[in-house]
Each structure stands twice: as C-alpha cells, then as structure tokens.
Amino acid sequence: MVSQSQLPNLATTNISTPETLDFIEQCTPDIILTAHLGQILQPAFYELFAGQTFNIHPGKLPVFKGPDPVFHALLEKEKLFTISLHESIRQIDAGKVLAEKTIQPERQTLFRTNLELFKFAGELIASHFLSKDDCLPVPENRPANYRSWPTNSEILKFLAAGNRL
Questions:
Q1: What is the DSSP-derived secondary structure letter of residue 6?
Q2: Where is pLDDT greater, at 108 or 53?
Q3: Are 49 and 16 in contact (CB under 8 A)?
C-alpha cells in the first residue's frame, strides 16, 4: 500500500500552467479526474490529455452547465439535483455524460446540497470505470444552458427567496 506521503503532489492554483502540465505528464496517469474544478482547462491541457480527462459535475447536464450549478438549480426551485460524470472536452461541460445520480436532498442549502451530491462521486466512478452500469444517465429534454458565476443580483434574489448558502 502506498502512503499519502509517497504520492506525487504539486500545489497549484492553475492546472494549465506549463509546470503543472509537466508534473501531470511525469506522473503518467491512466485517467485524470477533476471535481468542481472552477477553472477552464486550456487547449495545451487537452493536447496532452485528450481522452483521459473526466469531470465530476454537481449538476444535470446539459441543463446546468457552468461553475455553480447547484446555486442556479436552487434559484430555479428545482427539487431534484443530479451529479454527473462526463468526459472533459474543450467545450465547457459539453462532454458525453457517462454516469449520473439524482437525489432529493433533505435540506436544500447550497453547501449541504453540494455535499450530498459529492457523496455519490465514488458510485459514479465505479459505475462507469468498473462497468457496473448502475448509474446510467437519463436523457434530458430541457435545452442546454450555461450559467456563469452568480451575479450580485442573482445572489440577492436567491437570498430573498429564502434560500440559504
């Protein structure tokens, strides 16, 4: 068993810097898994790791694309929330959805809903990469929609509607 101190580690605030890309390449990963990354991967990243990169996204794709899908789902009074595993491609949150899990959280605050969704990340990974196929994606009829970081007015509207962070 490998101890945590033996694992390669690089602290960075930008996953697309040449230093970070060199570090990842030297690790020779089979796959790269990002979760709620909050960054846009640059073309240089995909030149090196296309087809190896996957993302855990706390939103129903393609309906809730973007960096804070739970915020926007709460603002739109959604009752069900989805966490998705998808292929990471150059277009934001546009890769093929490979697995997903939908829940109805007990307490719908921004933090708790994100926390409850990410409890299922391991299930999504096992479902797809171990071919369990027990978290298959459900087709969505609603149109694709990218929502950026919440604006000040959206935050005020969110709080005025009784939502909690």
A1: G
A2: 53
A3: no
